[in-house]
Every structure is written in structure tokens, then in C-alpha cells.
Design goal:
- With 184 residues, the chain is α+β, with helices and mostly antiparallel strands.
- It has four helices and ten strands.
- Helix 3 packs antiparallel against helix 4.
- It is globular.
- It starts with a helix and ends with a helix.
Length: 184
């Protein structure tokens, strides 16, 4: 039990250090003259649309599904909510929750992938990088197999296993329920 508390304390301390660094960076950005850090931040207006395409890179540890491919729109399951990314989107970093990403191609067709989570990074110049641990085309999943796995995970999450088994089953259940919703 003490090991968990020590580990938890380390995580909290790490988060505190990160937040302090962020606060320091924000304070420094306010007081450093613009000529020292480069041009001031540019704001996007409604008439600034230059290109109507996004360069998408979708990478998994073992393969790149898309590599600098021009697409029209990408819909992602961000932790903050569902999000559509178009050309000239405001730069941001979004944590992804398990869910469906939809890629709308230039031809008008779309491709759907289920990701177990990850990060999406929108950069200036209409570039979007999505990094995930696991991702599969939606059509590779069977609704019946997902229902069966949900039933099994629910049994374990209900307490029919060790503490670690229960924790893992709850995570698995979250992913499987997201997948089940995407298959409907």
C-alpha cells in the first residue's frame, strides 16, 4: 500500500512541476519583448482560408496509416469532446479518448478507424499528426465479438478477480463500450 502512495505522490509532484513550468513559461512570454521571441502570435480570421486541405499523418508504433496525406476533414474523439479539424485550424494538442476517427478524403469518401486513445497535434500550415498506440479500420470489428468481450470484462470488473485484474477490466470495458457505440 505504501508503494502505491509513494507512486501516487511522485505523480502528483510531477504534475506540480509541469504546472509550475507552464506558469513560468506563460509569465516569461508576457514580459519578453516580441522582437526577442519572434513575431507575435497570429490570429486567424474568417477570410484567411488559403488551402482547403489538411496534411494528415496517422501513426501507430508499428506502422504509418497515413503519411502527409491531403484530406479535407478529420473528426476526432478528443477528451474535451468530439472535434472536427479543417484546414487552417487553430494549433492545438488534444488528448484522444478511445473512439472513432473519421477521415474525409478529397474524393468525398471517408475512412473510419477505431483508436484506443492517443494524441492529436494540429500545427500551423494545416498539418495534423495523430499518434495512437492501437488503431484499426472499423470494418475489421464484429459487433457480436465486442458484445461477448464486454460481458466477460463486466464479470471481472464486478470483482471476480484480483485488484489489478479489476482495474484492467474497467479500462478494457471503457474501450469496448466506445467501440460498441462506434459500431452502431
Amino acid at each position: 500500500m505504501n508503494d502505491r502512495l509513494d507512486s501516487s505522490d511522485k505523480v502528483v509532484a510531477s504534475i506540480d512541476r509541469a504546472m509550475n513550468t507552464l506558469c513560468l513559461a506563460r509569465a516569461a512570454a508576457r514580459v519578453i519583448p516580441a522582437r526577442v521571441i519572434g513575431s507575435p502570435l497570429q490570429r486567424r480570421g474568417y477570410a484567411d482560408a488559403v488551402s482547403d486541405k489538411i496534411q494528415l499523418t496517422l501513426a501507430l508504433p508499428h506502422q504509418s496509416i497515413f503519411k502527409s496525406t491531403d484530406v479535407v476533414q478529420v473528426n476526432i474523439p478528443a477528451e474535451s469532446g468530439e472535434m472536427g479539424v479543417l484546414a487552417n485550424h487553430v494549433p492545438s494538442i488534444e488528448q484522444l479518448r478511445p473512439g472513432l476517427i473519421e477521415i474525409i478524403e478529397e474524393s468525398g469518401g471517408s475512412k473510419q478507424f477505431f483508436l484506443s486513445g492517443g494524441f492529436a497535434i494540429v500545427q500551423p500550415g494545416s498539418q495534423l499528426s495523430i499518434n495512437a498506440v492501437e488503431g484499426f479500420p472499423l470494418e475489421e470489428f464484429s459487433a457480436e465479438a465486442v458484445r461477448s468481450q464486454i460481458t466477460e470484462a463486466q464479470k471481472i470488473a464486478g470483482g471476480s478477480g484480483g485488484e489489478q485484474d479489476v482495474a484492467e477490466a474497467k479500462i478494457e470495458l471503457e474501450v469496448l463500450e466506445s467501440l460498441q457505440a462506434a459500431l452502431k
